[in-house]
Amino acid sequence: MDNNELNLLREFSPQLSTKSRLVKGWLLFLLFAFMLGLFGLYMQIIHGHAITGMRDYVVWGVYIVNFIFFMGLSYAGALISGTLHLMKTEWRKPIMRMAEILTVVSLMIGPLFIILCIGRLDRLYFLVLHGRIQSPITWDVIAISTDLIGCLLYLYLSFIPDFARLRDFKELDVKSWRKKMYSVLSLGYQDTPEYNKILNRSKNVMAAIIIAIAIIVYSVLAWIFSVTLQPGWHSTIFGPYFVIAAVYSGTGLLIIIMWIYRKIYHLEAYITKSHFVKIGVLLLILAAFFGYFTFSEYLTKWYGSESNDAVLIDKLFEEYFWMFIISNYAGVIIPLVVIGFPKLRTINSITFAAFVSVVALWYNRYLIVVPTLESPYLPIQDSRAEYLYYAPTWVELFTSIGGVALFCLFFTLASKFVPIIEVSGNAPKKLETKTASQS
Amino acid sequence: MKTILIYYIWTTRTKIIIVLMALTTIFCYTAFSQNAKKRINPRMSLDYFNLEDNSRILRASLYVIENRERMPITNEKIYFYLGDASENNMLDSLDTNADGIAEYTFSEDYKFPIDEDRKVTITAQFNGNKTYSQKSADIDIKEILMELFLSEINGVKSIAVRGYEQGNKNEMVPIEDANVSFYIPRYFNDQLIGKSEFVDGRSKIQFPENMAGDTLGNISIIARIEDHEFYGNVERKVANFRWGTTIPIEEDKSLMTIQITIPTRALWHTNAPLWMIITLIVLLTGVWSHYVYVIINLFRLKNLSKKRANNFRMSPEDNN
After folding, report:
1. If residue A87 lies in a helix (H) or strand (E), which one and from where to where?
2. Max Cα-Cα span within chain B
3. CA nearest B279 in A: which residue?
């Protein structure tokens, strides 16, 4: 372990402890919010899905919106961390870990929303026993489970050197079981060329494969919609559109996470404005692509004036007017303006633009799922007119809050288990400056 | 002290929390209230039918138009009133069926309490609930008597109707300003064969030649006043008389020899298309082989560590 790494460990080791009041309070708050979600789930199991806002027409509500949203976040993390690793970008070090944790945690949370959406959980195993290869749902189950395993492997590979550093760091003030855990998980890794050769080769393979899987898996998710004959879904560009939108929202959330950890852990020396600008420029490019795909998608439908598409577009511009404006106008224009003009580029403004993009993309998913289901090609027979309208109930709100809390809880716990900035390997440039100034 | 307290509360962190809470509130507000269920404004139609069996029916239909589709509102109570919607005037209350329709049938001997203009006003009302707002509809009805006659004179076949309104003193007043349409019931829909106007309570058309009947040449005729401002829908029917031409049944053997080829593999079949299975196997093999390679590497790392530990334990003996 060199001096830089040692200094980093000394600086980050207090962050690995959960002793501070703020951390305990935050964890308690998250647990409380998670309990709210569990209560919502309990009520849903007792009373059935009638307690939610989902009915004959809108059978996919906020749960599926959250599912697509979280899956999108995970793919963004995978694409960013995988690409930066393969390109061996020098400035990636301080943000790589956040992207990797984002990938795995959101990939663990996303599918939970599917489980919430299933009416008969006791029949879940039917999917394995009687699943049909022709069904996009089966493709999705296979794809997500494969992706989750791949991302976990990739995350573990990137954790191994840090586990070894933590194992060897004598000043670490954590419980003995954690030290044992670091020792077991590090697989006896030593910072020697022999170990690094095996590890780097594995990481390169996994980085390449998770990029490919991320694209395929999110396209599969898009195909669940686009292979269905529904106005607004049956589109050939849905695969790339979903991928771009996913990376866009994930990049936005990554910037927000960078901003939060920078403030809380005082990482100003490691996560600099330059990092925000670089990821911000990526956000800008993605905003432009997202805007382009959105425009292309709605223009063709509007111009074609096919009756059901026209109904859907009318609905979007009337009943969902503000949501549509925030999602497809503000969500594109604000990041383009804020990051596009160098004078406006500050850490806070880039974070604000990122926040707007995340909110916009959640709305985008809502607008893809709900209004389409409210305007099907064929009316459902013997249904009630009020079933045509969807509004999430408190149960869906509670379970959604619970899901978000679980995401924050897992992220917090992960950042308590390993340093939020990768300690091993080459120290970031700013770190050297800081170390020099300290010495 | 106050200044210190304000300074303490108004830290950067507090500002951030307040901004985040404000943004989250805006987000939740737009997400969950924009589409919050608002009371739906339903539509209602009320029609009067005087059918061939002399039954008299009020039909109230409750529905909404959504996505250019008519959607029935089911299981809601409709109140029928004779006159305005006051409790004393109530005829009955009935639930709408699966088609959003509530039908009130007048008893056979029921006599409408008609006014000076020989009409009676009927109101149907839906009182509304949490989901739907209140809606009502009313119609003016004049009760009529209508008869349908068939005649054949010198080979010319005619269909005639006679219609009278019920007067204030039970006298018969001939119908004016109304049209009657004549139909032959067919398999999918009724075939219109003519229309004529009532003149002095009478209306007549000539039956068209060579109208197809069933295999025996039997035919039925319906005379209808449709959607009239006061008479509503009045219908009379004469069934099964031999004015139609016969149609011989021809066996079309080509229809009986249709061969349907059922594919052994298809999207809708139990067996998936071959290309789909191959693609899935190739993709999964490609991905999982990489995983296996990485997992093997992890074991190699572990073995390398074991080897190093053994060497480390052995090295002191070697030194001795």
Report:
1. none
2. 140
3. A133
Residue located via tokens 């149609």: B247
> Could you tell me which residue, B206 or A15, shows the higher pLDDT?
B206
Q: Which residues neighbour B185 within 8 Å (Cβ) at sequence distance 6 or greater?
A: B191, B220, B222
CB-CB contact of A243 with A75 (8 Å)? yes
Cα–Cα distance for residue pair B185/B244, rounded to 1 Å: 12
- Strand duo B232-241 + B43-50: pairing: parallel
Which residues of chain B neighbour A157 with C-beta distances below 8 Å?
294, 298
pLDDT at B10: 60
* Cβ(B45)–Cβ(B76) below 8 Å: no
* pLDDT at residue number A432: 46
Cβ–Cβ pairs < 8 A, chains A and B: 132
**Partner A, chain B 75-94, Cβ-Cβ below 8 Å:** 75
Q: What distance in Å separates the CA atoms of residue A356 and residue B288, rounded to the nearest whole number?
A: 38
State the average pLDDT over residues B96-101.
Answer: 90
Q: List CB contacts of A121: < 8 A, sequence separation 6 or more.
A: A45, A115
How many other C-beta atoms can be found within 10 angstroms of the C-beta atom of residue B248? 5
Residue B155 — pLDDT band, cuts 50, 70, 90?
confident
Structure tokens belonging to residue A247: 């990376």
Residue A26 contacts by C-beta under 8 Å, 6 or more apart in sequence? A412
Domains along chain B with CATH numbers: 43-141 (2.60.40), 144-241 (2.60.40.1940)
Q: What sign results for the dihedral spanned by CA atoms A50, A54, A60, A65?
A: negative
Distance CA B37, CA A319 (A): 11
Sort out which chain B residues have CB atoms less than 8 A from A317's CB and list them. Answer: none
The stretches in chain A having pLDDT less than 50 are: 427, 429-439
pLDDT on residue A120: 83
Q: How many CB atoms lie within 10 A of CB A330?
A: 16
Measured distance CA(B35)–CA(B131) in Å, rounded: 14
Q: Are A334 and A225 in contact (CB under 8 A)?
A: no
Tell me how far apart the alpha carbons of residues B124 and B136 are, in angstroms, rounded to a whole number.
6
Tell me which long-range contacts B293-299 makes (C-beta under 8 A, separation of at least 24).
B293/A202, B293/A205, B294/A153, B294/A157, B294/A202, B294/A205, B294/A206, B295/A153, B297/A198, B297/A199, B297/A201, B297/A202, B298/A157, B298/A187, B298/A202
Query: What is the residue whose two structure tokens read 């805007």?
Result: A291
Average pLDDT over residues B48-54: 88
3-state class of B260 per DSSP?
A: coil
Q: Which two tokens stand for residue A109?
A: 């949370």
A157 in helix, strand or coil? helix
Asked if B1 is an interface residue toward chain A (Cβ–Cβ < 8 A), one would say no
Distance in angstroms (rounded) separating the CA atoms of residues B176 and B201: 6
Short-list B189, B190, B198, B98, CA closest to B147:
B198
Nearest to A165 by CA among A371, A437, A421, A352: A421
pTM: 0.77
With helix as H, strand as E and coil as C, how does A231-279 read?
Answer: CCCCCCCHHHHHHHHHHHHHHHHHHHHHHHHHHHCCCCCCCCHHHHHHH
| CB proximity under 8 Å: A 77-136 to B | 132-134
> What's the CA angle centered on B108, arms B102 and B111, to 5 degrees?
95
Residue B17 phi, psi dihedral angles, 5° rounding: -60, -40
Residue A220 and residue A140 in contact, taking contact as beta carbons nearer than 8 Å: yes
Please, are residues A71 and A412 in contact by the beta-carbon 8 Å criterion? no
Q: pLDDT value at position B27?
A: 62
List the structure tokens of B174.
């001939």
> What's the CA gap between A272 and A322, in Å, rounded?
35
